[in-house]
From TrEMBL:
Organism classification: Bacteria, Pseudomonadati, Bacteroidota, Chitinophagia, Chitinophagales
UniProt organism field: Danxiaibacter flavus
A Pfam family this chain is assigned to: adh_short_C2
PROSITE patterns for this protein: ADH_SHORT
Domain of life assignment: Bacteria
Protein name, UniProt field: SDR family oxidoreductase
Amino acid sequence: MRLQNKVIIVTGSTTGIGKAIAIRCVEEGAKVVLNGLEKDLGEEVLNIVGKQNAVLHIEDLAADGAITRLVNLAITHFGKLDAVVNNAAIVASSNLYTTDKDFLRKLLEVNTIAPFTLIKEALPHLEKQHGCVLNIGSVNAYSGEPNLLAYSMSKGALMTMTRNLGDTLNRENNVRVNQINPGWVLTENEAIRKREHGLADDWYKEIPSVYAPSGRILWPKEIAAAAVYWLSDESGPVSGQVVDIEQHPFIGRNPPKNSQTMKEPT
């Protein structure tokens, strides 16, 4: 098992990518601290992985003291901390005209500041284990879709933090920091979001090739499989790296002329 006896915090692990990562980590021999907002969904994940392998902490990471409580839970329950997966995020549509300061601050608080705070709080424990951090970003970090301004800004900042801390913490604390930037992933929340936008329930079965050359989008378990490499000792001393997980080159890709597009009802 590639993560045998490692203790890993996975934020936002009651649904989607975080859930898939937590389940895969346990399959690979790790003990996991689950975190999210939905108690019922969190308990479902806890039952899947087994209560002997995980502990659940339901709390908004933006709440005062939440990060400290999360780290303390890992230490008191499992006795150490080997890795942190910063996955929790708010995905919300906005552009220049619909984004006000309060909305932007909210997204930055959860998507960027909470990961920063968790790294800082966990660092003494990670240093003891020569551990690592894996940040879950987004290909939108590079510029973002037209209606994902605030979200894209938060992920861009997260990527810069990964590059910066990936150098300094590896050099000074023997703690590696890397990042995965997923592309379009079929999570539960993404399926719901598209249906709320007026698309059919089975919208994901016919994705235009401009978005999905393979004929489908990514699954959470595929992101989880990639995460295991960065959390395991197999990645060696590698740090400060950002890896895009998508099925086409996101930057500089020119869609074919007259390509079919996936339009959402207005």
